[in-house]
Amino acid sequence: MRIDSARSDQLQEWESELSAQYQRICQHELSLDLTRGKPSADQLHLSDGLDGILNGDYRAADGTDTRNYGGLEGLQCARELGADILQVPTEEVMAAGNSSLTLMYHAVLTGYLFGFAGNTPWREMKSPKFLCPVPGYDRHFSICEQLGIGMVNVPMTATGPDMDAVEEQIRGDSEIIGIWCVPKFSNPTGVTYDKETVDRLAQLGQFANPGFRIFWDNAYAIHDLEHQVNLPGIREATHENDTGDSVLQFASTSKVTHAGAGLAFVSASEANLASLKKQMQAMTIGPDKVNQLRHSRFFGEFTLLREHMQKHAQILNPKFECVQSQLEKAFADTDLGTWEEPKGGYFVSFNTRPGCAAAVIQLAADAGVKLTPAGATFPYGKDPEDRNIRIAPSFPPLEELDTAMSVFVLCVKLASVRKQLGML
């Protein structure tokens, strides 16, 4: 089906056939959900050994009684786990509670209210802004929106953010004070940044506002599917360019162990960590060290963590293959859409023809298949071309996913034909 070259009578025929198929599906009263990238129950079961692993022994290797107050930076063993995940020195890591999003929010708030490393607080600027590679992660955008920090779209490419656009924006506006990055298996495109992109990001601190920070959300650092994909190190690149203060790295075990009861990590320079800790001291006595100890004993060493992630991949691979198979079969020889084939992470990014995404999502919802809202992968929920749809294959059982993708494919076809006919 190639719409651009189709005659009007062909389009009318296709619309009639597709509408009939759609009405039959609606009669099935489906209730399927592809909205969030949540681990499935089978994935969560992989970490059930955390329960009871301490067996009454709450003391860390250094003698710390993890049941008590204190330890703002987290247990040494938990910091070592975070250092392994992020591939940075342990002394540059803080281990916290269950949410890297909480750490990111706290870090943005620190920059906004107090400034990092003695730099001007962002709130004192006339119009502080973050650069937002799009499509991107909606929760990042929500942080900026809540604090009134402006957002400027920059396109994502197959190798990371469009660095020409990034550099042009920063050189032209001294009040750009941050950029959001999901550098490995980006949410939602699945792209991993290449070395040139990482090197150019590391050089931004040489000409950006002194308070500028790269928010390096490495959420999928160890979430490879079939083969390990290497991400060039941002820390090494910033040290080579004398811009070590310009980056804050984040990671967590939210999609490694139990999603709501994992560990989160932040890694940064000594000056940045001092800024974060100064504000944290007014907010908390310390993290949940019992949970940190559980995780440290559960993995023991990084090789065990890698083996654990291979088990996740065995569960996820068939689901990603299902999505790719359905899209390839339906759209390989059409002009109805384009999509990414990620090598890891949790999402597949699909682009419809311009002006069709919202209609696809509404048609799918009416047929009983929930998708992430149109525009969610752009700041303020506004996709200027109404094209991008984020597909999250991880949570539903494979059979349900296959059904949901069949509905999705039909909705893309129907919305595309109706758009061409002027019916949308």
What would your notes on this structure say?
The structure is a single chain. With 424 residues, the protein is an alpha/beta fold. The chain has two domains: 8-43 and 306-420, Aspartate Aminotransferase, domain 1 (Alpha-Beta Complex), CATH 3.90.1150.10; 61-300, Type I PLP-dependent aspartate aminotransferase-like (Major domain) (Aspartate Aminotransferase, domain 2), CATH 3.40.640. Helices cover 40% and strands 14% of the residues. It contains 13 helices and 13 strands. It has helices spanning 8-26, 41-45, 76-86, 100-113, 138-147, 163-172, 195-202, 234-240, 270-280, 289-299, 302-331, 357-366, 398-420; strands at residues 32-34, 93-95, 129-134, 150-157, 160-161, 176-181, 213-217, 247-252, 264-267, 337-339, 348-352, 369-371, 388-391. The longest helix is centred in the last third of the chain and has 30 residues, at 302-331. The radius of gyration is 23 Å and the shape is globular. This is DNA-binding transcriptional MocR family regulator. GO terms for molecular function: DNA binding; L-aspartate:2-oxoglutarate aminotransferase activity. InterPro entries: AspAT_Ic, PyrdxlP-dep_Trfase, PyrdxlP-dep_Trfase_major, PyrdxlP-dep_Trfase_small. It holds the Pfam family Asp_aminotransf.
